[in-house]
Amino acid sequence: MSNESPDVRASHEDRDRVVDELRVAAGDGRLDAEELDSRLERALSARTLGELAELTADLPASAMAKAKDVLVVGQHGGRYVREGRWYVPARIELRSQHSRVTLDFSHALITSGVLRIDMEMVHSKLFLVGSPDIVIDADGLSATYSKVKLRTRSHVADPRLRVELAGTLLHAKIVEKRR
Questions:
Q1: Rounded Cα gap, residues 123 and 130, in angstroms
Q2: How many angstroms separate the CA atoms of 5 and 90, rounded?
C-alpha cells in the first residue's frame, strides 16, 4: 500500500500483502489463531486501503514498509545467507569481495514483482535459490573472467518474481539453484 488516501479501493495485491503480513505475525506469536482467523476474514473482504491498514496498525514494521527499503549487503570474506521467511525488497545493493552470498527465495515473502540487484562482485560467488516461476535477467551485467549459470528461461508467462541483475563481476560466479 502506498501513501494514497485510506478511502482508495484496495486491490487483490494489497489484500494479499496484508494476508502475508498477518500470517508472519501469527508465526512470530503476535496473533493467536482466533485473532488471525478474524483478521484474515476482514482482510479478504476489505474494500479500502484504510480498512487494510487498521488490520496491521498494531503490528511492528509492516511488510509494505520493509518492501520499500533497500537491502544493502556488504560482504568482505565469509558467507552471507538470506533464507526462510524474509521480505524481498524492490532493490538489493550487493558489494562482495572474496565472499559467498546466498539469496534463497523459496519461502521468501515476495512484495514486488521485480527485484533489481545492483552488484559489484570481486572473487565472489552468488547463489540464487528459487523455483521455475522466478525469472532471472542478467542482461545488465558486465563480467570479466566470470561465469553466470542460469537455469531460467527469460520468458515465463506469469513469473512470481523477475530478478534483474546489474553491475560488474570480476573473477566472480553467479549460479541459479532450484529447491
A1: 23
A2: 23
Same domain, 46 and 123: no
Same domain? 48 vs 124? no
Residue 22 lies in a domain: yes
Instruction: Quote the domain boundaries for residue 172.
Output: 69-178
Q: What is the pTM of this model?
A: 0.65
11: which DSSP letter? P
Where helices occur in 2-153 by DSSP H, the ranges are 12-27, 33-45, 49-56, 63-68
Cell 498477518 identifies what position? 22
Domain total for the chain? Answer: 2
Amino acid, single-letter form, for residue 40: L
Query: Torsions phi, psi of 90, nearest 5?
Result: -80, -20
- Please tell me whether residues 96 and 121 are part of one structural domain: yes
pLDDT digits (tens), the chain, 179 positions: 444 667 889 888 888 888 888 888 887 788 899 999 999 999 999 998 889 888 988 887 654 455 557 888 999 999 999 998 788 888 999 999 999 999 999 988 887 789 999 999 999 999 999 888 899 999 999 999 999 999 866 567 788 889 999 999 999 999 999 87
